[in-house]
Structure formats: C-alpha cells, structure tokens
Amino acid sequence: MSTLTYEDLKFPNYINNKLFFGNLTVSDAIAATVPAGLSLLLVGDAGCGKTQAASDIYYHLFGGNIADEGQGILIRAHPEVDIYNEIFTQINVQAGRRELTDNINALVYRVEELNRAPPVGQNQFFGLGDGDMDNKGRSISLGREGYHQCIATANLGNGEFSGTFKTDKAMYNRLHVAFDFSSQQYKPTDEDRFEMDERTANPNVKKTSPRDISELIIAAHKEIAQKTADKGIEATAVLHYLSFGLENCWEYEQKGKSWPRKCQGCQHNPTDDALCSLIREPVLRTLQATVLYAAALEYVAKLKDPAVNLDPVELMFKSFEMTGAYQFLLNPGILKQKYEDDVPAMMHAAVEELKKDFRVNEGYIFTAMEQAKEGRRIVNFFEKDGQVGDYDSLGERAKRKISPIQPFTDKRLIGMGWVPKYLDYVLKRKRN
Length: 432
Prior knowledge:
The chain has helices at residues 6-9, 26-36, 50-61, 83-88, 119-122, 126-130, 169-173, 190-198, 214-227, 232-245, 275-278, 284-304, 312-324, 332-337, 343-373, 396-401, 418-431; strands at residues 19-21, 24-25, 40-43, 72-76, 89-92, 97-100, 108-112, 132-135, 138-141, 149-154, 177-180, 248-249, 253-254, 381-384, 387-390. It is an alpha/beta fold. Helix 2 packs across helix 12 and helix 15 (343-373) crosses helix 17.
C-alpha cells in the first residue's frame, strides 16, 4: 500500500507560504490538521481565503460530497439550520419514521459560516466536533476507522458582520486548531499575493476536480496517533507544565473561577502584566489536541524533508499556541486593552514568555524525569561548572560549601510543584 506524501497534502488553489515553524509554511500547518484528524477553525475577514482553504481540503483530499462518491458533507450555517432532519435523517414513508442516512459515514464535515447560526443552532454542531451524534437514545460514531474531521469557517470582526452570532466556549473547545487570517502572523506573503494576482481573475472560490485520498489519510492518522503514545521526556514535561503550571496561583494556590479578577492588586502582579495574569490553564481536550497536533506537524515536516529535526519543546509550545488561542484562556481585559482583541498576537506573546520560563528550568525538570525512570528521586540540585547534580548525594562536607537549588516550588508565577508529584507517580508505576 502506498503512503501519504507531502505532495499529496499540497493545496491546489490556496497559497500561503508564510513561515510557520521549522520548515513548515502556514499552508503546511493547516494541512497537518487533516492526518491529525483534528477539527479546524478558519476565521477572518470576508475574502481572506478561509473558504478556499476549506474547499481545497474538502475536494482535493476527500473527493467532495458523499452524494457524489466523495467523503464529505457541506453544511451552510443559518438561523434555521437543522442538521438532524436535513442531513443525518430522512423519512421512511413506508415505515412511517425517520431513519439515519449514509451521511454519518462521511469523513469530513465542512461547516461554512458557523456563526451565522444562533448559539442554540450551533449546539447541533457539537457532535461534528466530537465525532459522535445521538439518535433515538443511541450514540452514533461519525466517520470511519476512528477518523473524522470537522472544518468550520467564521467571520469574526468588530461589528462589521451584522448577520453573525456569538460562539460559546464549549463549541470553540471542539474546534481544536484555529487559524485567524486577519492576523499578520497568518497572512500570505507578498510573493504569494503576486502569484495569486497572476491568475485568471475569478472572485469566487475555486473548486478543484474531486480527488479522494482518504485511505492514505486514515493510515497516516493511525501512525500519528500511535506516536503520541510515547511522547518523550521533553513533550511530557511541556504538557504537564501547561496543565499544572498554568493552574497555579502564587497567592491563592489555584487560579479558580475568580481569575483574572483577583490578579488586580496582587503583590506578585505589580505592573498588571505578570505572566500568570495573562493566561490560564487549558482543559484536557485542548491538551490532548496539543499533543496530537505537535505529532502531526512533525509528521508533515518529515514528509517535506526527512532530514529535518524539530526541537520537541519548541514544537509543543507552537502547537499549544494554535490549539489554545480560541479556548478562552487569555485575560480578556489585557486582550482588549493591550492587543485590541488580536487573539493570535496575545497568544503568541504569552506562549513566548511561557517558553522562556520553561527553558530556565528545563535542565532540572529533564534531569529529574530521566532519573525517575532509573528509580531515583531527585528534587534538590547543585550546579557547578555548568553541570547539574543531585545535592542529596553529596557528603556533609561538600554540602557545607554548596547551596541547594530547589526549583520545584509553586511559590512562583508558573507552578513547578507538579514535578515531585510526577516523580512519585513514575516511581510508583516502576515499583508496580
């Protein structure tokens, strides 16, 4: 059986060669969500290319509509949308009841203009993100062989789109990776724009000839998912740092529901821009998406250049930047006042600061985690001549000359108290 190639994933119409990470462009990063099987949110101004990118995935990778022997379902959101009756069930006149259609077997569900449906209507799309619909009290899995993808587009603006509605946190949480084409970070390069201007003028979305490579995509998805079972020390450390570290509050132990209100006037936040006040901890679904997307980015980077080596720490933080941006993790006051509601800009800035903080302590974290795998628990360190060692292994005479370093504390902006708990977990598993 042939395997997925980098050329297979290249878009036929959408062009965006803005550098994203490593050897990957923005187009590559969008395409990486496909073998990952992660739901994709494309937002931005009208005519910015989000529908073109979604269309390229829909037709060029999945063959278009399931009714036309493709693998996809296209839904245009509107105030009266009813996907249960319009898409997933039909009336069996002879039996006198509604029955499921073959549309539940589609691999890609493309929702155009998600926020053109009111919030109560958007609730119908939860199942598309979950890959699971309910019918007559039964759970119905969407897709095939554990694979499905939801792609949603939306116009987010400053009141210019009068026919749109708000989207709540629960819906955003089911759209795992978000690209905002209104942000300078994800706009095509000038050269891309020159190339697009050379094409025959056509203001409409360009529809490519249907091509279905879904079997290759499913196989790649299984391979990527398998890789996440062994994350490695670096990715595991970043994962727990984001989960437990961002949950920490130096003053009150945990951020809790009153964050970020209690950041105002906090002794550890004198200038109202302390790192812990910028961003809070992600939920489990976002963390899982971060791990899977990082694996998919590495997979596509290797398809593009087998010799490339991506730093796992940098990769995990970049992945979190994309999976966490639209998950209501950012301080809304700072987002509005300092960043003028530019979510990608604030998310990028916050993640860069988180990465700096992690890098300061990564030597201690990695050493402790590596030693735990060997059955040793190290939480006190010494440093000499650039080398990190176990302080508790020193003799009493040596200890009098060297001060211990105790980095694993929650008495800091981003908590590190999770490390000893993780070491105990690893050692317990090793004993059992």
